[in-house]
Structure to design on (857 residues):
């Protein structure tokens, strides 16, 4: 024995495998008998209870008190009382399967030219349309935004394909007064940023508070001026199951400006420099990104894009941009909003990101998942484009002249006509303000946007004509009635008033 | 074979139970309507083929004026409720602002105690909304909050300083959930009325609205019996004017610390509205406030719509309703209080 143990702690002896407890040992009979009746009782009771619960649902509350929420249900006979368990609209990563409702908020201001494109995006959304409620806020608009919006919505909601139709749609009108114009250079000048952002924040808050209902699980903020977005955008963002999530926003540029460019610089991670900068500023100051006046050295979501990167890569951020935000409704229910004051030296969407962080919500950006914002040329860009176009025309003319000398007359003039048809820049328009030309959709801007603009104008004019005709008819009818009621008197005046009234009357709840 | 089987199972009655139970459960889930339990809540089926369900509102036309009563302004009365008091309910239905202009909103925490409150609330609401037309309210919304409250509701616990931050934060979240989901395009005023406010003048809404202030709060007192004598004492200490001491305290505090009013551990020397009450003085005397309590608080809807909410985090070292007054101030709205206009809190 000892020789075998020597140097080997686990010697192979015959006893190694002889572990005695592995032998069958019957339980003591007394023990078994004592437990038997209890088990039998259980055996009988369980199925009985289950059966009872199955056939009499009202008994379930007795067994599990938390099922007491069963009483938490609307009575079909009492239409004025509504119950909602907010935990059922918590929002999960698979909302489209669990039929979670999404509130889509779209603030609009002088957005008529963008509407046709916006609605084509809406139609393409793959998230079940019946689960999407939409809320629009039309504020301080001088163009036909409201009229166009109505037309498009009417058309969309009476679509032949029931799957195209959306849930409930709210349109709100409210003017906030405007501090600056909506031109690109007006909007993006440094001085205008603070007050402008605060106003936009108010608009967003009004829109949200008026439209958010207890049954909404998600809120999707989307700007109208998006050029290209994946139709699956809602699901793509939702899949990440974060409290607040934004994609990367870029914009296409003309070739001579480099083809593409980061657009939304409001999605960023906080930096030490920025925190120190914030401490030196007054209580009401607002730090805005993307201006040399405030060098914050923050990592921007926009600059981190890799065109071939994995679109699912996430990045923790502190400020968010507003072009396309998907947030769980519980974030807004918890009180997070777009600060219309300086919250930790930030306002609007950036302040929203900061506030969400402060409240412990997750705020995430996707650096490689891109949505393309519309390209709106700045005044400088437009001037540059005008010069380029003139240069091009001059060269063409020269070429034509050169060609005209060689070729017979007929062919040359035909070419000239088709040329001017394609790019109707006239000699007289050289002195015109490029911005004006751009907004009129005339001239050298051979872009999709100009075409949309023209289409929008046409529709708006048609609608206007229709409305005028209808009003006329109404006024005539009213005048007839008034004349019949009071033949000698202020019949005409009354009729006019009646007509005005019918015009002002708007459906309200 | 049969013998073998029965032998096998006799030894393991547990397995039989499991099998029977599992199959029954399976059956239950297969047959029972797959409604509410797993799926998110739905609205009445989205209009397919029927109405276009497009609504249009002009928020410009909304007013909240001192003549609320005559200009038919709608009032939303909001109450976070954990206990149901009959006195509260009776007081509520006795408010003589036209009921067809009033919408009610309640939010209940999760838990057993709230369940019993819910039962009684349900019953009361049902009785009212099926009763005389004149007494019915325009709309009643009952919400169940989506988070657990970290506190029990016993009077002692509620007022201990240590738990104040969590308690007030949860309260703030409940209030925010309530107003963000119930305020709709037609609402002009929001009245926050706590569930334990059991006695107010019947003209509460008109009286407060008549001052035409963005935020105005009544003075909350409590009735008690002392040696057989009926007396009143101050109850809500959240309505105050700031003091230099408090401001200095806030300056020296860390980012996540909060100042609470009414605790000896934190002497703030603020001017408390509770102690400005003088019996017999004009009830419409106003005073400016920097912090407000939400026991009976009337707010113009535009204040909430602009974004003023009840911070659930330390906002300028303030939280909940006190933080609300501060946030409103940052948005340009001044709060006011009526020191001689009393409402009464339930006495536990």
């Amino acid at each position: 024995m000892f020789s075998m143990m020597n140097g080997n702690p686990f010697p192979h002896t015959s006893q190694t495998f002889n572990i005695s407890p592995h032998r069958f040992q019957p339980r003591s009979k007394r023990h078994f008998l004592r437990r038997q009746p209890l088990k039998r009782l259980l055996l009988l009771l369980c199925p009985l209870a289950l059966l009872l619960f199955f056939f009499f649902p009202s008994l379930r509350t007795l067994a599990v008190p938390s099922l007491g929420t069963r009483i938490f249900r609307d009575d079909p006979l009492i239409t004025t009382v509504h119950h909602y368990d907010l935990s059922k609209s918590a929002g999960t990563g698979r909302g489209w399967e669990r039929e979670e409702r999404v509130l889509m908020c779209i603030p609009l201001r002088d957005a008529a030219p963008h509407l046709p494109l916006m609605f084509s995006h809406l139609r393409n959304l793959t998230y079940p349309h019946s689960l999407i409620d939409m809320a629009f806020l039309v504020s301080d608009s001088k163009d036909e935004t409201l009229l166009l919006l109505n037309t498009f919505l009417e058309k969309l909601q009476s679509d032949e394909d029931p799957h195209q139709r959306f849930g409930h749609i709210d349109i709100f009108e409210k003017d906030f007064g405007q501090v600056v114009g909506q031109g690109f250079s007006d909007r993006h000048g440094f001085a205008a940023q603070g007050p402008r952002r605060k106003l936009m924040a108010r608009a967003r808050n009004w829109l949200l508070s008026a439209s958010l209902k207890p049954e909404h699980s998600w809120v999707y903020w989307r700007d109208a001026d998006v050029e290209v977005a994946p139709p699956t955008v809602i699901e793509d963002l939702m899949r990440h199951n974060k409290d607040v999530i934004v994609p990367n926003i870029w914009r296409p540029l003309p070739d001579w400006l480099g083809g593409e460019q980061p657009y939304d610089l409001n999605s960023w991670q906080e930096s030490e420099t920025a925190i120190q900068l914030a401490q030196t500023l007054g209580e009401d100051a607002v730090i805005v990104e993307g201006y040399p006046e405030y060098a914050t050295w923050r990592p921007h979501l926009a600059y981190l894009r890799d065109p071939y990167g994995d679109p699912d890569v996430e990045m923790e951020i502190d400020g968010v941009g507003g072009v396309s935000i998907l947030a769980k409704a519980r974030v807004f229910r918890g009180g997070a909003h777009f600060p219309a004051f300086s919250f930790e030296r930030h306002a609007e969407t950036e302040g929203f990101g900061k506030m969400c962080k402060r409240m412990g919500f997750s705020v995430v950006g996707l650096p490689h998942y891109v949505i393309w914002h519309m390209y709106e040329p700045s005044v400088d860009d437009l001037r540059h484009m005008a010069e380029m176009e003139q240069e091009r025309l001059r060269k063409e003319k020269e070429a034509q002249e050169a060609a005209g000398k060689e070729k017979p007359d007929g062919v040359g003039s035909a070419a000239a006509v088709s040329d001017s048809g394609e790019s109707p820049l006239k000699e007289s328009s050289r002195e015109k303000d490029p911005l004006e030309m751009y907004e009129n959709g005339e001239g050298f801007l051979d872009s999709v946007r100009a075409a949309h603009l023209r289409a929008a104008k046409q529709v708006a004019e048609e609608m206007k004509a229709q409305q005028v005709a209808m009003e006329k008819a109404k006024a005539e009818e009213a005048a007839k009635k008034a004349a019949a009621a009071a033949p000698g008197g202020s019949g005409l005046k009354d009729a006019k008033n009646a007509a005005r009234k019918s015009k002002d009357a708007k459906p309200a709840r | 074979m049969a013998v073998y089987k029965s032998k096998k199972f006799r030894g393991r009655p547990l397995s039989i139970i499991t099998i029977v139970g599992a199959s029954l459960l399976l059956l239950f889930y297969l047959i029972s309507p797959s409604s509410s339990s797993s799926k998110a809540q739905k609205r009445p089926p989205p209009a397919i083929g029927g109405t276009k369900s497009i609504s249009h509102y002009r928020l410009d036309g909304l007013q909240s004026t001192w003549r609320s009563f005559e200009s038919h302004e709608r009032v939303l009365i909001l109450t976070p409720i954990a206990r149901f008091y009959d006195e509260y309910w009776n007081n509520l239905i006795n408010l003589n602002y036209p009921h067809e202009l009033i919408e009610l909103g309640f939010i209940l925490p999760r838990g057993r105690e709230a369940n019993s409150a819910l039962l009684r609330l349900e019953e009361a609401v049902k009785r009212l909304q099926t009763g005389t037309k004149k007494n019915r309210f325009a709309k009643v919304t009952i919400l169940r909050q989506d988070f657990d409250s970290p506190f029990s509701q016993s009077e002692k616990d509620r007022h201990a300083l240590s738990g104040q931050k969590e308690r007030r934060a949860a309260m703030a979240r409940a209030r925010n959930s309530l107003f963000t989901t119930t305020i709709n395009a037609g609402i002009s005023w929001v009245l926050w009325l706590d569930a334990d406010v059991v006695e107010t003048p019947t003209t509460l809404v008109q009286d407060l609205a008549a001052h035409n202030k963005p935020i105005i709060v009544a003075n909350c007192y409590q009735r008690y019996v002392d040696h057989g004598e009926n007396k009143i004492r101050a109850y809500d200490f959240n309505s105050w004017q700031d003091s230099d001491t408090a401001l200095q305290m806030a300056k020296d505090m860390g980012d996540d610390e909060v100042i609470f009013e009414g605790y000896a551990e934190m002497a703030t020397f603020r001017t408390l509205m509770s102690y400005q009450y003088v019996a017999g003085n004009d009830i419409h005397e106003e005073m400016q406030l920097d912090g407000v309590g939400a026991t009976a608080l009337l707010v113009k809807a535009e204040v909430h719509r602009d974004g003023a909410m009840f911070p659930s985090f330390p906002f300028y070292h303030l939280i909940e309703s006190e933080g609300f007054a501060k946030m409103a101030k940052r948005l340009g709205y001044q709060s006011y209080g009526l020191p001689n206009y009393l409402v009464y809190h339930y006495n536990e």
